[in-house]
Every structure is written in structure tokens, then in C-alpha cells.
Specification:
about 200 residues; mainly alpha; Tetracycline Repressor, domain 2; 9 helices; about 60% helix; globular; disordered C terminus; DNA-binding; TetR family transcriptional regulator; transcription regulation; repressor; Repressor_TetR_C
């Protein structure tokens, strides 16, 4: 029997996710995988929602551990790489985007504040920075949702015409991300020097 603690439960739950997909993840399956009775899981997680939240947080670790921006960094390059890192992390797990969608990033709040402060200090108006970060986050999740859904084709998908174009998901993602950045850059330039916040002491 696997020695069970909170971290073991989350690790095994993520491995189960990769094997069977989010729809089929259940506490019953997880308990069987761990070699314990189902009620034993409730010692660590009172509800399945709490377990899914912990899984979502753990799955985001590669992105959450990425270096934070420094004052001398180019904010445009950082904005692009931040979204790319988010996408790569969502793609690491089967149904990673579905697992993440709707989760509350409680452990990420300090990092989010740091990122926002960096953008504002770089001259991006605060409101535009907030909306651009929200837009890029939701855009990235939506792109990965579509990409991962395509990885699990629906029934009768073999009946689709042969001439349906194959989408290059990374190319499409980069194109849309460039448009978001372009809009943010345009709004920032239009705001002028008055939008530049003082650098942190």
C-alpha cells in the first residue's frame, strides 16, 4: 500500500488524470489506486472540489516556479514569454486547461501582484495591464481547451471530410497572442509618458 499523505494523494490524482482524463477521475478510483478505503481520502481533502483545487495548483508548478520579471526586462518580451510558459504548463497534463479553468490561484497572488507592478513600472497603464493579463490568461486557457479536445476526438470524427484543414495550434496561438500584445502596446503608446509609474525604491 502506498504511504499516504496530502502530497501523495495529489501526485497520484494527477497521474490518474493523465491516464483516464478529468471526466473519469473519481475519489473511488483514486482510493483504489492508493490501496485505501475511499473515506480515508477525506482526512486530506474534505470534498472532491478541494482535491481538484489542489491538483490544479500542483499542475501549475512549472509556471508558478518560472522566474519573475526584473525591472530591466523588456515588458513586451516578458508578456509573450509569460503566456507561452502558461500554455506549456497547461499542456503538460491531460485536460490541464479544464482542470485549471475556474480554479482560484491562491498561491499565485503575490506573483500576480509582482507581475502587475512590473508592467505598471514599465509604463503600461494599470487598467490596461490588468485587462491584458486577464485577456491573455483566458485566451491561453481557451486555446489549450481546443487543442486538448482535439487530442481526444469525438465519436464519428473519422467521418469528417479529408479536406478539413489541420490547424497548427502553436502557430495560431502565437498569432492571437501577438494581436493582444499589439493592442496593449498601442494603448500604452497612446497613454504617453504620464502613464509611467515611478520605479520601486
Amino acid at each position: 500500500m502506498t504511504k499516504m499523505n496530502r502530497q501523495t494523494v495529489v501526485t497520484e490524482a494527477l497521474d490518474l488524470l493523465d491516464e483516464v482524463g478529468l471526466e473519469t477521475v473519481s475519489t473511488r478510483r483514486l482510493a483504489k489506486r492508493l490501496g485505501v478505503e475511499q473515506p480515508s481520502l477525506y482526512y486530506h481533502f474534505k470534498t472532491k472540489k478541494a482535491l481538484l483545487g489542489a491538483m490544479a495548483e500542483a499542475a501549475m508548478a512549472p509556471h508558478a516556479d518560472a522566474p519573475l520579471p526584473s525591472p530591466g526586462d523588456d515588458w513586451r518580451e516578458w508578456f509573450l514569454e509569460n503566456s507561452r510558459s502558461f500554455r506549456r504548463t497547461l499542456l503538460m497534463r491531460r485536460d490541464g486547461a479544464r482542470l485549471h479553468a475556474g480554479s482560484t490561484p491562491t498561491g499565485e497572488l503575490d506573483r500576480i501582484r509582482h507581475k502587475m507592478a512590473f508592467l505598471v513600472a514599465s509604463g503600461v497603464p494599470e487598467r490596461h495591464a490588468q485587462m491584458a493579463m486577464l485577456a491573455s490568461s483566458r485566451y491561453t486557457v481557451g486555446c489549450v481547451l481546443e487543442e486538448q479536445a482535439e487530442a481526444d476526438p469525438p465519436p464519428n470524427s473519422e467521418d469528417l471530410p479529408d479536406d478539413v484543414p489541420v490547424l497548427d495550434h502553436e502557430e495560431a496561438f502565437e498569432a492571437g497572442l501577438a494581436l493582444i500584445l499589439g493592442g496593449l502596446d498601442q494603448h500604452t503608446a497612446a497613454s504617453g509618458p504620464a502613464s509611467v509609474a515611478p520605479s520601486p525604491a
